[in-house]
């Protein structure tokens, strides 16, 4: 039995240091959920894309990432060539790699799936809305981890809309309805709440803007876990990355699903019977 600090009923998953291992029933459930959300994307006219597994620090800087979310970041680096021999000689008991042995970090693991999409669209222009769906392994340095509810590494499916302010609003509204109907069909009580992103600077201009005019809504399971969110970025990314719609900086917005959080909520709702949860997702997915 693997070492674990948190297990679900029937050992369907194990979590350690915010990193999850799922057994087959959890994998099947997560894939079935992803298939439902991907189909919603396809029905909205989204094409599927996948992006590089790492983001360039230089690119994230243009999105104010280090002003707004530096605390979430997971930088990725290499061992300095001149330190390889010393590292190889470390005693077997040594654990962390000392920072002095590491090169400066040029890349980070994504903390949201839509960054790859926004960066890919840099410098493009369109006259009709562009819809894209993507899934990514995302990483967030959280102040604590908690089972599948709060992970360091998790899977995020997103459906992104790029277009006019109105097209983005309609996109988010349509998916708010779909999430509510899907939750109801699964017997999951999901409470829709306005939210703000976890900005590093609590009085920064984007925090204040989000507080003045809520642009993010979350869907909370009864235990407070946000399983999905809708985010209106307005024309921030359009301006920063020269993404244009009808000759002006495009508006963008995304619908995001944390797949492990859905597995957690359904595991709870079906009292650990993930096979029953899977059947319910397949049934509800067909009807939603
Ligand atoms: P956000 O951009 O914060 O709205 O995140 C999008 C979705 O990812 C959320 O609605 C959650 O379902 C999921 N999520 C965010 N942070 C975590 C985390 N630390 N562990 C697991 N899922 C997460
Ligand atoms: Zn997003």
Tell me about this structure.
- With 288 residues, this protein is an alpha+beta fold.
- It is 35% helix and 25% strand.
- It has a single domain, classed as BirA Bifunctional Protein, domain 2, CATH 3.30.930.
- A seven-stranded mixed sheet has the order 3-8-9-15-12-11-10.
- Strand 1 (13-16) and strand 2 (19-22) form a beta hairpin.
- Helix 1 packs across helix 9 (259-269) and helix 1 (24-43) packs parallel to helix 10.
- It is globular.
- The protein binds adenosine monophosphate and zinc ion.
- Residues 112, 114, 158, 231, 254, 256 line the site of zinc ion (ZN).
Protein structure class: alpha+beta
Major β-sheet annotation: 7 strands, mixed
Terminal Cα span: 38 Å
Taking pLDDT < 50 over at least 5 consecutive residues as the criterion, the unreliable ranges are 1-5
Order of helices and strands: EEHEEHHEHEHEEEHEHEEHEEEHH
Principal-axes shape call: globular
Q: What is the CATH architecture descriptor?
A: 2-Layer Sandwich
List of distinct ligands in this structure: adenosine monophosphate, zinc ion
Instruction: Give the radius of gyration.
Output: 20 Å
Oligomer: single chain
CATH top level is: Alpha Beta
Annotated CATH topology: BirA Bifunctional Protein, domain 2
Number of H/I helices: 10
Protein name: Seryl-tRNA synthetase
Keywords: Aminoacyl-tRNA synthetase, Ligase
GO molecular function: aminoacyl-tRNA ligase activity
